[in-house]
Amino acid sequence: MIALYDTLARSLKELSVKDNPINIYCCGPTVYRDAHVGNLRTFLLADLIVRALKIEGRQVRFIQNITDVGHMSEDFQAEDKLLKQAQLEKRDPFEIARNYEAKFHQDLAKLNILPADSYPRASETIDLMLQTILKLIASGHAYVTELGTVYFDARSFPSYGAISGNKLDALKPGHRFEYSDEGDKRFHADWALWKNAGNRTEMVWDSPWGRGFPGWHIECTAMSLELLDERIDLHIGGIDLRFPHHENERAQSNSMVGHEAVKMWVHGEHLLFEGRKMSKSAGNVLLVKDLEERGLDPLALRLSLLENRYRSQMDLTWAGLEAANLTLKRWRTNMASWGDELNQLQDLEVSKAFARDLDTPRALLRLRAVEKDSSLRSEVKRSIFLYADSLLGLELGRAIEIRPLTSDQAELLQIRKQARESKNWKESDRLRDLLANTGITVSDGPDGQSWSWS
Ligand code: AMP
Ligand code: ZN
């Protein structure tokens, strides 16, 4: 039984065993730039949930959208993020979109994030969005203006604000609640489902209200309802999407189906890098390729992220990434030295940690305890690690070359360990340099001394 934190209920909720398959929708990337490691933290959240469900034998249907049109920039200029980037790069907007979409898939693969069942593109779902908008107009939840723009009537949905707490009566005019120009909407909190093209000539489509393009929020409503048969068991996204994106989506989807369309809203907290919000202007946006350029395994990023629970804000640092890289190497080395057993052995502590709101730090603590437990046979340790890895996705069983240590190296390592334990820092530094000369990098972390081939 898996329990997750539902942002709407503000409590842990168990996933019903009756729903089969479990229908999952995760808001995907806006493909006008590379996904940064913060985006990837949110995509990893979906992967962990899928893995936790599958290991319990549950069937999963998992959809993630690709936003290649309609995501407006936040500067109130009503500029489409993709068109803006296309102008900057002097390239066709669809070429930009396909390029970054391909890179998004490459990054997912590097982090062992299992692919979704489908990745519908906004630009290829226009008809479905138009049908959805027509239904919302017919049921009185949306209206068309003289300028040929269609707005959702926020006041037609009384429980607006339930996810984020931003109720309509508290949203003042002029509050930054929507990434768009004010246009000719009737009420300040209404948002555009379809925008008239105006001067825009690229990425525009015909509609019953003239040429235009869809808003961002309607995309997720149209796709999730259609592809998941109007039953979304889990809706996943980063915490910033709670408002307005998910609030607007909930209003649209519930107005379409007449009940709560989403059973559980799960949000991942943000990732900071070296203590600061990642932003282009601050110049601290970290990408997977930056890690690779430093010689780090991208799965060291995955391990670093797993050291924190998805619901807490996390500060990623280079030091943390380096430490995770060493831990990965140590675990893979251990795994190779523990034999060649291929069977997994279910470990209750690991599975319980996952089932209780993805407590990945606890699962990793358990692995560290197993690693050190001298009462466990090597094959047992290996089988437990293999089991945990089917959830963690760290390729702990990846074949690595194990060169045996020479007896001198083994002895030096042992003496250095003792020197450190007796706090003889000078001697331990001297021994580390000696070992470095023989091709061994020694490092010290919370788990004690570890080593790898340089
Ligand atoms: P975008 O491509 O900007 O639409 O964002 C894709 C996903 O990444 C969304 O679910 C965002 O909430 C999430 N996201 C954006 N920035 C961060 C961050 N710093 N940490 C974690 N998730 C983020
Ligand atoms: Zn979405």
Brief account:
The chain is of the alpha/beta class and 454 residues long. It has helices spanning 37-55, 81-89, 93-110, 126-138, 216-227, 245-257, 288-293, 298-306, 318-337, 348-355, 360-372, 378-392, 407-421, 425-437; strands at residues 3-6, 11-14, 22-26, 60-64, 142-144, 150-152, 191-196, 212-214, 234-238, 265-268, 271-273, 276-277, 314-316, 440-445, 448-453. The chain has 3 domains: 3-140 and 154-172 and 216-268, HUPs (Rossmann fold), CATH 3.40.50.620; 279-402, no CATH class; 406-454, no CATH class.
What does this structure look like?
The chain is an alpha/beta fold and 454 residues long. It folds into 3 domains: 3-140 and 154-172 and 216-268, Rossmann fold; 279-402, no CATH class; 406-454, no CATH class. The chain is built from 14 helices and 15 strands. The protein has helices at 37-55, 81-89, 93-110, 126-138, 216-227, 245-257, 288-293, 298-306, 318-337, 348-355, 360-372, 378-392, 407-421, 425-437; strands spanning 3-6, 11-14, 22-26, 60-64, 142-144, 150-152, 191-196, 212-214, 234-238, 265-268, 271-273, 276-277, 314-316, 440-445, 448-453. The strands form 5 sheets. The chain has a 4-stranded parallel sheet, with helices on one face. A hairpin with a 4-residue loop joins strand 1 and strand 2 (11-14). 43% of the residues are buried. The structure holds adenosine monophosphate (AMP) and zinc ion (ZN). The site of adenosine monophosphate has 15 residues, from helix 1 and strand 9.
